[in-house]
Design a protein that fits this description.
Blueprint: E1 7-13, H1 20-28, E2 36-42, H2 48-58, E3 62-67, H3 77-88, E4 97-101, E5 105-107, H4 111-121, E6 125-130, E7 132-135, E8 141-144, E9 155-159, H5 160-165, H6 175-185, E10 189-193, E11 200-202, H7 213-227, H8 231-241, H9 249-263, H10 274-285
Parallel strand pairs: 1-2, 1-4, 2-3, 6-10, 7-11
Antiparallel strand pairs: 4-9, 5-11, 7-8
Helix pairs in contact: 7-9, 8-9
Amino acid sequence: MKDMRRYVIIAPVRDEEKYLPKTIDSMVSQTIKPTEFVIVDDGSKDRTPEIIKEASKIHPWIHYVKRPDRGERKVGGGVIEAFYDGFRNLNTKEYDYIGKIDGDLSFGQRYFENLFEKFDTDPYLGAASGKLFLKLDNGKIVEERIGDETVLGGMQFYRKKTFDDAGGFVREVMWDGIVYHRCRMAGWRTRSFKDKELMIFDHRQMGSSHKSIYHGRMRWGWGQYFMGTHPLYIFAIGGYRMFERPYILGGLLIILGYLKGWHKKSKRYEYPGFRKSLHAWQMERLKIGKRLEKIP
């Protein structure tokens, strides 16, 4: 019988010598291993390339791809450019699932086995992840909250057909929010599950890898403007995020980033029917409307 759990993982990384070994160890320990794990070095200046090369010598399914140094970390579009460099360098075209992960995460050995069980029980589940947790300096573990209908940006996992139906990733900030909603428009569910076996541990706070957490929140708000988020929804997001670190200021910066995009009349993502569908979905989440798509 054909194995329908063939999967490939692509990890764009830059200067991750401190955390990448944890991510590699997590992949190596999986009870169901990937057909390929492609790690794309996006211009690292530390020992990241050596770490990847050493792992690839031990595990033939780990592959190293080198990109030229662009001079600085480029979030959003730059990450996706690196992802597609890895995608073009896949040796296999025979796979059923595809994932994109960050190089600063760790997770349990049954992570993908448990994720496959979720897909097996729901034929309309197109993209999924676990929930993200951060260990603080005092030893306390806190959840970095994401909605249940959202897949973690740093741990993307799709059915191949879903990924194709959604058109893949756009090379812009908020690429993850865009692809989730394109999945919904194509009739697929997207989910993140709060299961013990699906816990993902972040070794730096979400949104803090480029410049600072404050810059990250501003960038997030601008990305929401680019995606086409409804103004009412961005104020709701900002209010919700005020109760997370950095308290109050983080939520305000999200709103400010959105308003900055609006004031400058920055470009926005364009796809037929996307913004209308996104607004309907967002209004339903605010309990003042109904989404357009009906998924069984």
